[in-house]
Specification:
Elements (H helix, E strand, L loop, with lengths): L1 H11 L1 E2 H23 L2 H5 L7 H7 L15 H20 L3 H18 L6 H13 L10 H6 L7 E2 L2 H20 L3 H4 L4 H6 L7 H6 L3 H17 L10 H22 L5 H10 L4 H10 L1 H7 L1 H7 L16 H27 L15 H6 L15 E11 L4 E3 L5 E2 L15 H10 L8 H14 L7 E12 L10 E8 L2
Antiparallel strand pairs: 1-2, 3-4, 3-6, 4-5, 6-7
Helix pairs in contact: 2-5, 2-15, 5-6, 6-7, 7-9, 7-15, 9-13, 9-19, 14-15
Length: 498
């Protein structure tokens, strides 16, 4: 048992300064995510948009979900909740009342994501899980207003506990499980997965266009990707030269996600992963940061830090601890046991999902995961890459019988493929919505999207330019092997009228 504890300390100890950097990054990402989502307040979160509350409850709601964002279908109420979430995200970034703010930020993020599952992606799951494990981590001990107020000149720089182990294991699960879910030969045998991924014009970025013609390179990158995801995370469990191996893992995965960001349109997914890697940085990296970078940041923030001491605390919480030191240790043991239990549950959830084990999670065991939203599925391009690609045409017929494409700002309707399909999407939330729109199980989405686009077009245009009928058309292209050309097939998904 003694040697096991020494091993666990060796591989699961984290630098608290690295956690603090991750906290700052998470605060920034939360603000960025809220900013992007806020551009679609009515469309994605209000009853006048594409997913009214009654449609949410009838079709995709889980009885164990919790969401403040479902208290009203008014966009104005959603705007207030967004502002509250932004305030707490900023407080998290600067490290003010960090643990309390972390709990509130996690709850508000959970609430927001539950409001519209049709626009969610894997990055949302990871961001939610980072915040959840951070509730139990001391990531406000450095680079924060809390640290300034505590006036502790020598805080502990290293932390080991159930939550630090959970954080490291969570990062590992993201990559190992996505590799295990990719059980198609195109990932580990033929190496054609990246060819099919870059054939998807809905996610193709300029960097992807550059490498797409080179089949041998794509095969090499596919097999490399698969093996990096499957094996590299286990390097974190090597108990010797841990600092070196941490930097190696962070460096390789950082390059991996930067490569993804310039080849595939994945929204904030790559940025959330990069932020999560900050928490893995070892002590030597943080010593360099403190010596070389931190002095410049401190000089920039000097006046802000002085001002921060004058801010009266809006929440005064004082505990007269009624327990003895033994009682405190007992509560700490309860907390550690709780975190270990949830971690084991998360591992169970993930492993039950992979085909190699093929043991579905019992229905009566799923409710804790849905309640706390520790449910997760890392099926990025798994088990195989989608072969159905295409683009949308929103064919509107005006009173003068003109046929225009609302998806191209009212230009004459044409079936010609646009130069950039990605450019047709306002942001990745709309791209993900468009992806879910195609599934047969989601046909309930179609009339609400159609009527929403019809309404906002007519509200913004003069009577002669208003649309009398709108057809949501998908120009479907089935990707064939070896760059074979394919003729798009026109599919009418929905028709609506005012």
């Amino acid at each position: 048992m003694h040697y096991l504890l020494l091993y666990l300390k060796k591989v699961f100890t984290v630098d608290v300064r690295a956690l603090a950097l991750m906290r700052i990054g998470v605060g920034f990402v939360l603000l960025l995510d809220l900013g992007i989502r806020a551009t679609d307040l009515e469309a994605h979160y209000a009853n006048m948009g594409v997913l009214p509350l009654y449609v949410l409850f009838q079709n995709i709601w889980d009885p164990y979900f919790i969401s403040l964002h479902t208290i009203s279908g008014l966009w104005q109420v959603q705007a207030v909740l967004f502002l509250i979430a932004a305030l707490f995200a900023f407080l998290l970034l600067i490290g003010y009342r960090t643990r309390l703010v972390t709990i509130i930020s996690w709850f508000l993020l959970l609430s927001l994501q539950n409001r519209n599952l049709l626009i969610g992606q894997a990055g949302d799951d990871l961001l939610r899980m980072i915040l959840f494990w951070a509730i139990f981590l001391p990531w406000g001990r450095f680079y924060s207003l809390d640290a300034q107020r505590a006036n502790n000149p020598h805080p502990d720089k290293l932390h080991f506990g159930a939550a630090s182990a959970a954080f490291v294991v969570q990062i590992m699960l993201v990559y190992v499980c996505t590799a295990l879910l990719k059980n198609s030969p195109e990932w580990h045998t033929t190496g054609t997965a990246l060819y099919y991924a870059l054939s998807l014009d809905q996610v193709l970025m300029p960097g992807g266009k550059l490498i797409y013609p080179y089949s041998d390179l794509l095969q090499f990158l596919t097999l490399t990707t698969y093996h990096i995801e499957l094996y590299l995370p286990f390097v974190l469990l090597i108990p010797v030269y841990t600092s070196f191996f941490r930097i190696l893992v962070v460096g390789v995965l950082t390059g991996f996600h930067l490569g993804i960001s310039i080849t595939l349109f994945v929204g904030l997914f790559y940025l959330i992963n990069l932020v999560s890697f900050l928490g893995l940085l070892p002590a030597p990296a943080m010593n360099w940061f403190d010596a070389k970078v931190l002095p410049y940041i401190q000089n920039l923030g000097y006046h802000l830090r002085r001002f921060s001491f004058k801010i009266p605390s809006p929440i005064q919480v004082r505990f007269n601890w009624p327990f003895s030191s033994a009682g405190k240790e007992g509560l700490i043991a309860i907390k550690e046991g709780l975190v270990i239990s949830i971690l084991l549950y998360v591992i169970w959830w993930n492993l039950a999902d992979v085909p190699q084990i093929n043991r579905s999670l019992p229905t009566n065991a799923r409710w804790p995961g849905m309640l706390l939203r520790v449910d997760q599925h890392w099926g990025m391009f798994a088990p195989e890459v989608f072969k159905d690609d295409g683009w949308y045409i929103l064919e509107g017929v005006t009173a003068t019988n003109k046929r225009i494409d609302l998806n191209r700002n009212g230009q004459p309707e044409t079936e010609r493929k646009p130069e950039s399909v990605v450019a047709l999407f306002k942001n990745d939330r709309w791209r993900k919505y468009g992806e879910n729109f195609l599934f047969v199980n989601n046909t309930f989405m179609r009339p609400y999207f159609c009527h929403y686009r019809l309404r906002i077009w007519n509200e913004a245009h003069h009577p002669e330019d208003r649309v009398q009928e709108l057809r949501v058309i998908y120009m479907k292209e089935r990707t064939l092997p070896n760059y074979q050309p394919v003729k798009p097939k026109r599919e009418v998904l929905c028709i609506c009228r005012p």
